[in-house]
Predict the structure.
Amino acid sequence: MREIKKIVIAGAGTMGSSMGQTFAKFGYDVVLYDIFPAALEKAKNLITLNQKTEVSEGIVTQAESDALLKRISYTGEMEAFKTADFVVEAVLEKMDVKHKFWEEASRLVGEDVVLASNTSGLSITKIAEVIHKPERFGGMHWINPPHIIRLIEVIQGEKTSDEAAGVIRDLALKVEKKPVIVKDAPGFALNRIQLAILRECLHIVDTGIASPEAVDDVMKYGLGLRYACLGPFEVCDLGGLDIFNNIASYLFADLCDKKEPFGMLADRASKGQFGVKNGAGFYDYSDGKDEAKIQYRDEMFTKLAKCLYE
Ligand SMILES: NC(=O)c1ccc[n+]([C@@H]2O[C@H](COP(=O)([O-])OP(=O)(O)OC[C@H]3O[C@@H](n4cnc5c(N)ncnc54)[C@H](O)[C@@H]3O)[C@@H](O)[C@H]2O)c1
């Protein structure tokens, strides 16, 4: 497979822009491709904001940050894929959109170029159905915000070769991430866990057990601290398997097992309240509260990452 110098990212949204910033930090030339010029402009602003935080937190110097920004270019032209050494796609999470994109892009890139999708949980095997030379295609699932969070799930679909999965894993290691290999099950591992938590949180609010603010506090001041440094199986070992087995024996039957989105999530989403990206979600993000929240998150995550990994 080809040596990777130039990485083209499709979709310059929340994920694509931050992934681009990460690759650029480690010396890769990055091209961000999007069909909407406004998305490219927004990506530039987001990367600049992220860089400000990284400089103020002492993660990079001003000079390093300036050099990083120069390694990123922005385009609306598919031509960019012709010279890519690696392609990662972060377009809308819809199978038809991903299919339309890959059908065209996979025929433009060189045949020795590894291709990856950042899908949150769509089937890699299914996306691969339209891809030219599908054995070089796999999942590279980054976690938001990608320039801070270390985990990357590497997903091997039915046709993904060991070599292609290896290239994705090695690239993750080169940008100082923690890759884990996961099977191509819906939601992979992370989103199965995350959505199981979200479903129970919605249920707790829906049935009046606790308010949304109280649920957020339970995570932030209780479980969050624990899970920042220990996995659930390690937590069980420390608490005692007898204790957890006993709790599971009366609690599992009472936990939510709804099959469709419901409660506050479904209500807000149907009203177009999508969160920081458009000013309102579960909380209000008008009048600059959106940027303040992103900055708060990045500062806190960066501090935590320093404690945990350095
Ligand atoms: N947001 C998250 O927390 C998160 C985490 C991990 C993975 N993901 C996955 O990453 C992908 C992108 O998510 P996001 O949150 O960045 O979405 P987003 O809506 O912020 O960005 C998607 C971008 O793709 C662009 N786009 C749409 N169709 C396109 C096309 N045909 N060609 C090029 N660009 C196109 C849009 O203009 C937009 O800028 C999705 O598959 C999503 O499931 C998201």
Observations:
- The mean pLDDT is 95.
- Residues 190-309 form a domain with the N-(1-d-carboxylethyl)-l-norvaline Dehydrogenase; domain 2 fold (CATH 1.10.1040.10).
